[in-house]
Amino acid sequence: MTAIIIQLLIGGVLLGGLYALIAFGLSLIYGVARVLNFAHGTLLAIAGIAASVMSAAWGLNPLLIAAILLPVFFAFGWLMYVFLLEPLKARNPMQTVVGTVLVTVGLLLILSDLAAQLAGPTNRNIRLDLDVFAFGGIIVSTTELYILLGIVGLTLALHAILTRTWFGRAVRAVTQDSVGARICGVRAGAIHAATVAFGSAIVAIAGVLYTLNFPVNPYVGFELTVKAFTIIILGGIGSLPGALLAGIFLGVAEALTGFFWSSDWAPGLSIMLLLAILILFPQGFLSRSAT
Amino acid sequence: MIRMWSAFAVGAAILASVDPSAAKQNSCDGPIVLGTTISVTGINSSLAGRWDKMTEAFEKEFNKNGGVFVSSCNKKLPIKFVYYDDQSIAATAVSLYEKMATVDNVDLFVGPDWSTHGFPVSAVFEKYKIPSVMSNVATPKVYQSGFKYIAGIALDARTWSKNYFEMLAGMNPKPKSVFWIVQDNLVTKAVHENSIPLADKIGAKTVGTEHFAGTTKNFSGAILKVKAAQPDVIYISAFDAVSVPLVQQMRQLQVKAMDVHHIMANGSMARQADLEGVSGEIYWHEGLGGNYTDFARAVLAQADIKVFDYLWTIGRIDAYLVMLQAIERAGAVDREKVTAELRKPGASWKHVGGEFQFDEGGLSQIVSYTHQMQKGEPVVVWPAAQANGKMNWPAPSWR
């Protein structure tokens, strides 16, 4: 039974870590720029599809693919903010919120259908036929180890960027007190744009990692966005450690539910947890100041 | 979710292309207008993404010889499709069929696909008394609901795996146990329920059943249950797209069995999930031949469709072909006469893979071929008369 539990934990942590990576960018974008980006999961799907196409066509290494996609998605995020979202800031707060939702939902639909037209609607992934390690009834594939390594590496890099760089300090300053940050010389508008760009770049890397183990198609994005919203609510909006903890918690809970109860119930678990946490811990596991 | 922009774009293109001189009922002027919806976008587009092109190619190829012979007109009439993207949403399909009945004034319907669409759309056919030959609506309950104006081309859930279990009965060593992994979906559950007695009949005892939701990504819980049960056969009743991570994770976790059977093991899944050695059901394959083979090949080539990638394409083509046969037999573009032909007891119909009859409710009695993925290619292994290879038993890749 111990081996089974460990096996379930490995699968749960892997999927949960990927959920957390998706949630990081979403959490950051909402925490700083106050943008509810419903197209966030779709960006992951498009990054995954692009990665799959590049892998199949040119046989590129996933690391190289991530390096190519990173600046592309950073630029896309920046342009998305400047041309589609920033103009909404001139409206009253209610119109800004509603407008943001409408724009990002519209973007989700356009990007999904555009990706389906360009790359086809079928599922895609990156096939890495790597070794599998088995010890004491526990089986781990090299691909899973790479993904885990990627999750850990990206989480540490994000933590370092947000705590040890000028950009990170500026982000936190704008999040905590936008007016105060401006008085100190931080251009809030530029920080908002950079944050949306940064969040989009993170999800591009998450897309490559996700596609190594799970298939993506142009329409999988919304489902992932909902999952990411659940995680940032569980973990506390704007909290990086909270999102990581919530993601892993959700992934492990799904895996355990699949074994001890039924796989049928695993996807619905996130909604049940969401409701429970909203009632019991309305601030999430960790408060936003933790970032 | 409503994709307004794509609906507008597709709608505008179609409205612009519809010939206003379309035939009126019982008229001998102009083309016969067939209305349909296709899941060009949305969740089912991975199954039907290129069928808009296929439908255009079908129209072009079929009209090359003048169209369908209508005896009351004593001439051939060309056909014309009016199609919309139902975005894989049943409610959208319903409103589009309403629109085609009232605004586009189509003569007859073909489609839609999928059991989830078949139920609600059948009510529209009844309301306007316009017959339709649906495709890939496999759930028998749709046809047992008393709808008069429907017929459907699909593998029947009741006999989906009939050939597979017949084949298993003769295997050596004989499989003694089966574990069912079932997607929570109308058709996949129906296939599973109807396969249980077939397994019982050959003496394969059920050692476990696991249902999963279509959004499941982590299957480790289900797979560990399978490993604990040590079944001879693992039977997966699920759609192809949702099964990719399942089969991948089964490989990673080194699942062993005599055979892993998937009811929709197709090409796109094979490229992603390593289906080598997996057996499955197939509606038709180019190597099988049959009626309209050359016609089907020409249509598929024009639409750039590899039938193994879009497994249910031939079901769609068959729906078109059967509707055209019904018009020819009715001898008029008359909805009631066409309906009467479609529901005539004992009538035999030609389709790409051979001939078949409809059951009392209007569901085609087409039985699938059993195939096994061998060296990356689907090899038909049963029935023996149509087989182009032998089943590797037990499947080497799952030992």
Could you explain the architecture of this structure?
The complex is a heterodimer of chains A (about 290) and B (about 400). Chain A has about 290 residues and is mostly helical. Chain A has one domain (about 1-290): Orthogonal Bundle (ABC transporter involved in vitamin B12 uptake, BtuC), CATH 1.10.3470. In chain A, about 75% of the residues lie in helices and about 5% in strands. Chain A has eleven helices and two strands, in the order ααααββααααααα. A two-stranded antiparallel sheet of chain A has the order 1-2. In chain A, a hairpin with a 2-residue loop joins strand 1 and strand 2 (about 140). The longest helix of chain A is centred in the first third of the chain and has 32 residues, at about 1-35. The mean pLDDT of chain A is about 90. Chain B is of the alpha/beta class and about 400 residues long. Helix content of chain B is about 40%, strand content about 20%. Chain B contains 14 helices and 16 strands. In chain B, the strands form four sheets. Chain B has a seven-stranded mixed beta sheet, sandwiched between helices. Chain B has a five-stranded parallel beta sheet with strand order 4-1-5-6-7, sandwiched between helices. In chain B, strands 2-3 form a two-stranded antiparallel sheet. In chain B, helix 3 (about 50-65) crosses helix 12 (about 295-305), helix 4 packs parallel to helix 5 (about 115-130) and helix 13 crosses helix 14 (about 335-340). The longest helix of chain B has 18 residues, at about 315-330. Chain B is elongated. In chain B, about 55% of the residues are buried. Classes of the chains: A mainly alpha (about 290), B alpha/beta (about 400). Chains A and B meet through helix 1, helix 4, helix 10 and helix 11 of A and helix 1, strand 9, helix 9, helix 10 and helix 11 of B.
